[in-house]
Design brief:
Blueprint lengths: L2 E4 L2 E4 L1 E4 L14 H13 L4 E3 L9 H9 L8 E6 L10 H12 L4 E9 L4 H4 L6 H10 L3 E8 L3 H10 L6 E5 L4 H4 L2 H10 L3 E5 L12 H10 L5 H10 L4 E6 L4 H10 L8 H14 L10 H4 L7 H13 L3 H8 L15 H5 L6 H14 L3 H4 L1 H10 L4
Parallel strand pairs: 3-4, 3-10, 4-5, 5-6, 6-7, 7-8, 8-9, 9-10
Antiparallel strand pairs: 1-2
Helix pairs in contact: 1-2, 1-11, 6-8, 9-12, 14-15, 14-17
């Protein structure tokens, strides 16, 4: 097993993400026997980092993790959990909610704890004086119930830079979505560089983009097979990330023993990709993209009569074009109504100014439609609201 040093801790580079356990389609109950088998194999081969969250699997992930890890000494593994600020129905008793996670996980403390899913939209909740989240989480850290504090992030580089500057010294690590596709598509490289510049550790989520990079098209799979005939598509995605020096933990949401076995083979020892292999992955990534080649030069913004942040909107557009996601929708939700793509009047000044020749009005019109039809957080979060109210015995 490859390990990383983090403030004197020896962390397995492969972390076990606990969001995708197999569940019964009728009852929603987790297949505990399979979870135990996967954990046993992972621990036997050196995995010591396990990542769960309050809302995962409708609240059942934490309990399944507790049952599986409860068979091992508490000091033999590192447990990570998250505060669901982005899912709150309104201001709640944050400490009581935190304690529910402790109880579900059958532990007195979390080795790693994260503010969950920070975006341009959810940061308004996390920083709200009324919600009082950050002070309450810091109180839990002062009491020793949190050993290391970080946050998971789905926003843009500008917000990330602002947070790490404003809250310097508060956080120790940041978890970002990063893979060879999002290295450019979601500006993961810029985010990685910002985190590294501020001296924090980088944690990786979605290394295979929700499984999409684990099973490529026949054409792309054959390209990789010519490079390493015995390697899986997923192993290329993981080895790409292993080459980033400041990456401390790479989380994989495993739900089958076979996936655990393949990942353990990949992380058994460092076997980095050569220049030709990296170039091939970048070519595959470019072929997967379906958006526009915006470089963020902002020439388009200077003459926009509506004052739209066009590069920001095109970031969201590119994300939607690959796969509609809740995170992209939340970034759109953060915008004032008069700054959303539907406010574009189609004057074309932006298109004339664009060095890349992008038909910006057409892209913004399509983005407005994608946003209207895409995942709706305000609708989908209602179930989480009710679950939190129930757990806290709220009306």
């Amino acid at each position: 097993m490859i390990y990383s040093d983090f403030h004197g801790l020896k962390l397995s580079r492969l972390g076990f993400g606990c969001m995708r356990f197999r569940t019964d389609p009728e009852t929603g109950e987790v297949d505990q026997e399979k979870v135990n088998a996967m954990f046993d194999l992972a621990i036997e081969k050196g995995v010591n980092y396990f990542d769960t969250a309050y809302p995962y699997l409708n609240g059942k992930s934490e309990g399944a993790v507790a049952k599986a890890l409860g068979r091992y000494p508490r000091d033999s593994y590192y447990l990570a959990d998250k505060f669901p600020g982005h899912s709150l129905p309104g201001p709640v008793d944050n400490i009581a909610l935190f304690n529910i996670s402790l109880q579900r996980c059958q532990t007195d403390y979390f080795d790693f704890y994260l503010l969950h899913n920070i975006t341009e939209w959810s940061i308004k909740i996390y920083e709200s004086e009324e919600y009082h989240i950050i002070p309450d989480v810091l109180k839990m850290k002062e009491e020793g119930k949190i050993r290391h504090l970080g946050f998971s992030f789905h926003g843009g580089p500008e917000l990330l830079e602002r947070l790490l500057t404003q809250y310097e010294g508060m956080f120790e690590f940041v978890q970002i979505q990063c893979n060879y596709l999002d290295w450019t598509l979601q500006k993961a490289k810029e985010k990685y560089d910002i985190i590294t510049k501020h001296g924090l550790g980088v944690w990786i989520m979605e290394p295979c983009r929700g499984g999409k990079l684990a099973v490529l098209s026949d054409e792309n799979h054959e390209k990789l097979q010519r490079l390493r005939p015995s390697a899986t598509d997923a192993s290329f995605a993981f080895r790409y990330l292993q080459g980033l020096d400041n990456v401390k933990v790479i989380l994989s949401g495993m739900n089958e023993v076979s996936q655990v076995e393949d990942n353990l083979n990949t992380f058994d020892h460092y076997d980095g990709l050569n220049e030709n292999e990296v170039d091939t992955l970048m070519q595959i990534a470019e072929g997967l993209k379906k958006g526009v080649p915006c470089t963020g030069c902002r020439y388009c913004c200077e003459g926009c009569p509506m004052g739209l942040n066009i590069p920001y909107l095109l970031e969201c557009y590119n994300d939607y074009k690959y796969a509609a996601s809740m995170s992209a929708g939340m970034r759109m939700d953060a915008l004032d109504e008069d700054k959303k793509p539907s406010m574009c009047i189609g004057c074309g000044q932006c298109a004339h100014a664009c060095p890349q020749g992008i038909d910006v009005p057409a892209a913004l019109a399509e983005l407005a439609d994608l946003y209207a039809r895409g995942p709706n957080w305000s609708r989908d979060v209602k179930g989480r609201h009710e679950a939190i109210k129930r757990d806290l015995n709220m009306k």
